[in-house]
Amino acid sequence: MPKPIVTLNEVSYRYPHAPGGTPPALSNVSLDIARGEFVALVGANGSGKSTLARLLNGLIRPAPGEALVDGKSTADPANLDRIRETVGMVFQNPDSQIVATTVGDDIAFGLENMGIPPDEIERRIEETARRFGVAELLGREPHWLSGGQKQRTVLAGVVALRPRVLVLDEPTSMLDSRSQREFRELIDELWRDGATIVYITHLMEEIVTAPRLVALQDGAIVYDGAPRGFFSQPELTASTGLTPPLAVRISQALAARGHRLPPALSLTELVEAVCA
Amino acid sequence: MCLGLRLELDEAGLVYQPGLPFSATALEHVFLQVEPGERVGIAGPVGSGKSSLLELLAGITPPTSGQVLHDGQPVGRAGPKPGTIGLSFQAPENCLFENTVAADVAFGPGRLGLDKEEVARRVRSALEATGLDESFEQRHPFSLSGGEQRRVGLAGVLALEPRALFLDEPTAYLDPAARLDLIDRLVELNEESGATVVMVGHDMDELSRFAQRLLILDAGRMVADGPAPGLLADAGLLRDHGLEPPGTVTLAGLISRAASLPVEPFLTEEQAVEALARIMEGR
């Protein structure tokens, strides 16, 4: 087992303003993520996904338990700069992450704060903007962009910093289906280039191709393994508030009608099973 | 029973910051009539003008050319008549401000001159429609997760029980079970109240479950307007405009090629199961 780049050790977390009686957002969660892994993190609204994401770069600190990034604890403020260089975050709502008055300045913001030389900044802006399809928008005011264009701008700004771990909290929720697929391909490309990816999503088609799936329910991990194993347990899938992908739903409906066919995760697998 | 609002765009166009260096055309000359009680979906790629069209129709953003009419009356710069429309922006959770969920949802209906019992009824029924049980009522909105906050934001709009409801990607950030549930509630609400409902969506499966009529936008122009089932089954048209057809339509294409036999096109999941079962039985 390669050395984990992110470790959560029996962590729990309760939000400070939560009224009495509210269950903790996370309770006793342990998770190791190895360098270069791709982990899809799923669960119903309120299951603790975003809380877990915020623990990963020390935005919030677990109590009790510990969160380690590259062996460094998020509890020690002296580690936080380093940890946040290692872990890049793309939040749910792009508006909460856009700070500058033009797209170009927004991508430059993080780079300037890291003390990157100006000509290198220029180069990285150009490169990431082209890669994420916002090159034509560099001079535009983020305020006037569509939701999806904003999401790309935010991703470009984070990736320009070259973090080794990328935590994405429902990054495609405002994209149309083609842009969703393109976006996911970009993330896969970053993954193949060696980045560790933690990908929070509600989109089943994005989940089935992930090598590892971690499902949360009421603040606890209820599944950790390959997606196929998760979707072969319809009760578990339903109890986490997720609906299986179309191919799984149809093959289950066919099985219920007495047709014997191997379980299919994707439409291609389903067609093969039906025509076999 | 409320009567749905009739919506009309008469050559309406929208240019952001006209005459300035950052000027951008969001929509070009749109003619459109939406009948009272219609359920209309708006689809299109990123930046195609979906949200702009929704805001024009709702009458909250005045067009830079042409005009917007509600029930045949031009909507002035003051906006639509109070109480007639409800609009949920892309991120309704940004509009939360009260100290409890119940107070936040009650804010809108509380200003329509209704009695207390009626406001309380609407709050309960709106929270129910968005899948939030009574335990949420006294919680602070900011103690909720992102998805739960979104539901509260939506509930606040539903509680207005408007004659026309405008929703901008209401299901984004909701978990899959909650998405389907919300779509079904919107259909139910439309059928029961007769309110006109216009929804921007990017998920073709959701649009297929929701819309009777579909509008497709591309680069600020309306490129298709017709019955939703027909347009959603037209994989070529959708792809031409940067959209993915619903999963069932993709499946129909794959299966007719692989089985090398003509398969009757299907759109709903039930039809897909039927068609596949017939193929397996025929083997």
Topology:
The complex is a heterodimer of chains A (about 280) and B (about 280).
Chain A: E1 4-13, E2 26-34, E3 38-43, H1 49-55, E4 66-69, E5 72-73, H2 80-86, E6 87-90, H3 103-113, H4 118-131, H5 147-159, E7 165-169, H6 177-192, E8 196-200, H7 204-207, E9 212-217, E10 220-225, H8 227-231, H9 234-239, H10 246-256, H11 267-275
Parallel strand pairs in A: 3-8, 3-9, 6-7, 7-8
Antiparallel strand pairs in A: 1-2, 1-4, 4-5, 9-10
Chain B: E1 7-16, E2 24-34, E3 39-43, H1 50-58, E4 65-70, E5 73-74, E6 85-88, H2 101-106, H3 116-129, H4 146-158, E7 164-168, H5 176-193, E8 196-200, H6 204-210, E9 213-218, E10 221-227, H7 228-232, H8 235-240, H9 247-258, H10 269-282
Parallel strand pairs in B: 3-8, 3-9, 6-7, 7-8
Antiparallel strand pairs in B: 1-2, 1-4, 4-5, 9-10
Helix pairs in contact in B: 3-4
Features:
heterodimer, A: 276 residues, alpha/beta, Rossmann fold, 2 domains, six-stranded mixed beta sheet, B: 283 residues, four-stranded antiparallel beta sheet, globular
Summarize the structure.
The complex is a heterodimer of chains A (276) and B (283). With 276 residues, chain A is an alpha/beta fold. Chain A has 11 helices and 10 strands.
Question: What does the model show?
Answer:
The complex is a heterodimer of chains A (276) and B (283). Helices cover 37% and strands 21% of the residues of chain A. Chain A has helices at residues 49-55, 80-86, 103-113, 118-131, 147-159, 177-192, 204-207, 227-231, 234-239, 246-256, 267-275, and strands spanning 4-13, 26-34, 38-43, 66-69, 72-73, 87-90, 165-169, 196-200, 212-217, 220-225. In chain A, strand 7, helix 6 and strand 8 form a beta-alpha-beta unit. In chain A, helix 3 crosses helix 4 and helix 4 packs across helix 5. The model of chain A has no long low-confidence stretch (mean pLDDT 90). In chain B, helix 3 packs across helix 4. The longest helix of chain B is centred in the middle third of the chain and has 18 residues, at 176-193. The chains are: A alpha/beta (276), B alpha/beta (283). At the A-B interface, helix 5, helix 6, helix 10 and helix 11 of A face helix 4, helix 5, helix 9 and helix 10 of B.
